[in-house]
Structure formats: C-alpha cells, structure tokens
Amino acid sequence: MKKLFIFLSFLISIYSFSQKLEKIPLRKYRIATLSDSLKETSGLTFFKDKLYTFNDGGNPNLVFEIDENSGKILNKLQANFPNKDWEAITNDGENLYIGDFGNNAGNRKDLAIYKIENSTNSYKIQFNYQNQKNFKTNYLNHDFDCEAMIFLDNKIHIFSKEWSSKNISHYIINFQNSENQTVTKIETLPIGFVVTDASYFEGKLYVVGYTKKGKVFMMIFEGNSDGLFFSKPSKKYKLGSALTIGQVEGIAVNKDGVYISNESFSKSIFKVKQSLYFVPFEKIEK
C-alpha cells in the first residue's frame, strides 16, 4: 500500500507540472498603494464582505479593515494577544483567526492560532508538526514554516511554506481543542516555490508565493469530496517578479475576483511600495 501511495503521488506530481504555465501580468492590476501603516502587510481575508489585513511579526497587534477599491484604512481592531510572527488570517463567517506561526528559522515550539470572538475575546489554539524532530535554527532551509490558512468544513486548514523541498503540504487543525495538538500532513505536492497565503472560494483553493529568485506565482486547486486539493490537475500562473510587483504576501477571493497584496520591498535599485492588486475572474483562464 505504501509503495502504491508513493507511485500515485509521483504520478500526480508529474501531471501537475505538465500543466501549461499561464501568465498574468499582475503589475497591470495594481489598484492602490497601501498606507505606510501597512508596510509589512502579510495576509488578506474577506470577513462579512469587508477586506481585512495585518502586519507580520514585531508590529503592533492590530487588524485593519481596508477599502477593497482604494486600499484606505477604514477601521482598526486591537487584538488582546501578542504579534510574535503573525502570518495568516481567515474566518468562519462569525469569528476571525490569526495564524501566529511564522517560522523562518525553523526553531519555534510555540506555534499558535488565535480565534478572535466578538471582535474582543480571544482563544488560543496551539500545535506542532508531527514530522518535525529537529528544532535547531536552520534559517530558510527547512520545511516547517507556514503563512497560509483557510477555514473549511468546520476545520482550520494550514498550508506549509517549505523552504527546503519547495513543496506545499496540507495539515488540519481542530480549532475546538486548546491543548497543544500534533498535526500530520494529509497531502503534499511539489510546486517549485514557497507559499505565502491562501484563500478558499466556491470549491477552489488559491495560493500565492515566490521563489528565492523573486519569481511570483499563483496556483488554483480544485477540492474533492474527501476535502483534499492536490489530487486533481491544478492551474499555475506566473504573476511577475518581486522586483516590480513586490513580495506577494496576501490573497483573498470573492465573487468579483482575486485580491492580492504585497509588502514593501527594496533590493538594490528596485523599490516597490506596499500595494493592493485586483484581478477580475474574466482575466483568469477558466
């Protein structure tokens, strides 16, 4: 059975990479420069038809509502838990969830997701990876980082940022369990870049990320009846280079299309302001 699983996984991987790589020039779809208060914006989610974002680790523990057309900050929510390394945001329709699980160095033992109830109270969900045995600092050279999370079928789904293997792995977390959970990957797929955010809309999983050389990508996966995403052919789009569109860190999808955000990016002579992009569905090949 194990050999059969490995063989099927290999076939899925080969089939996935055989898909035609499409291009979406994301730079054309920039709609706003975000406030300087959002230079390190690191995730997006639509919650009750409003668009929310936040800054990553080391910044104030604030969640920002922004205008989806102008990027203007409309409101701020003060969380009552620290921002050690916030990297993802999602919701269940009634509550927000913040993923404090950024782990570039690979040495964290305090990975957590915070549930924000009624805009004030918080609930901490702790977890660790079953297959992580080594917690020595191994900066940007391991498979236990994470910046992508969705809420689906009454469960939290997280998707790994794998610096070493360039895979995406899928884990499920029981948000009703406050004890430290050990999570096991339920599926994995080689994609060739590191994933920095995810969004779910109408049966499809959307992820964005980049390579160490700054190539930026989006992939779209269709879910199956078992709650898995990597068993069907995917669509992969090259969005551009971080030198012109920035380091993409957020994605949120609604009935109109795909919203993508990048944090402020500077390298050599290239400087890109924190921005918000919108790609209508009709511009994405069906």
Could you please describe the fold and organization of this structure?
This protein is mainly β and 286 residues long. It has one domain (2-281): Tachylectin-2, Chain A. Helices cover 7% and strands 47% of the residues. The protein has helices at residues 2-17, 242-245; strands at residues 21-23, 30-33, 45-47, 50-54, 62-66, 73-78, 88-91, 96-100, 112-117, 121-129, 145-152, 155-161, 167-173, 181-183, 187-190, 194-201, 204-210, 215-222, 235-241, 247-253, 257-263, 265-267, 270-272, 275-280. It is globular and about 45 Å long. Residues 1-11 and 13-18 have low confidence and may be disordered.
The largest sheet, given as strand count, sense and whether it forms a barrel, is: 5 strands, mixed
The residue-averaged pLDDT reads 92
CATH topology: Tachylectin-2, Chain A
The CATH first-level class comes to Mainly Beta
The end-to-end distance, rounded to whole angstroms, is 35 Å
Overall 3D shape:
globular
Tally of strands? 24
Q: Look at the helices and sheets and give the structural class.
A: mainly beta
Number of helical stretches of at least 4 residues = 2
